[in-house]
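Q: Given only this backbone (137 positions), what sequence would you predict?
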């Protein structure tokens, strides 16, 4: 019956209600994990992390042991809203560096809402595979 009164259809009403309930009961201070990808190139890795709405002043990229950490915060401006779908809060993601990644010479650049971290690779000779004999019994 509600879908007859509501012009957007049954699925949109259900989805809007679910989103409203999630926001109402969501823990404050929740940490968001940004979407990312790691590309492998011959002489480096390229980590791309989506951070829309954040500027360099709101982001921190650092090494912690064998992990590369991306941290920041997207703050909400206080104003009257008629629609609220943008997510605000703290972002945090730690990436385990590949074994051949160098810890020196990392570069981070922010372009159109995507953080790109260039991670140099060590040049190591390819190790031949080691054959392990299989015995019966």
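A: Predicted residues:
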């Amino acid at each position: 019956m509600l879908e007859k009164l509501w012009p957007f259809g049954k699925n949109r009403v259900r989805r809007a209600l679910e989103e409203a309930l999630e926001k109402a009961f969501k823990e404050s201070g929740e940490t968001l994990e940004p979407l990312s990808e790691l590309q492998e190139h011959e002489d480096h890795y390229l980590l791309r992390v989506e951070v829309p709405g954040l500027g360099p002043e709101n982001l921190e990229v650092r090494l912690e042991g064998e992990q590369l950490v991306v941290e920041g915060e997207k703050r909400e401006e206080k104003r009257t809203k008629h629609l609220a779908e943008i997510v605000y809060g703290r972002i945090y993601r730690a990436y385990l560096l590949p074994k051949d990644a160098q810890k020196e010479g990392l570069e981070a650049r922010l372009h159109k809402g995507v953080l790109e971290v260039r991670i140099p690779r060590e040049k190591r000779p390819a190790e031949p595979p080691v054959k392990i004999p299989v015995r019966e019994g």
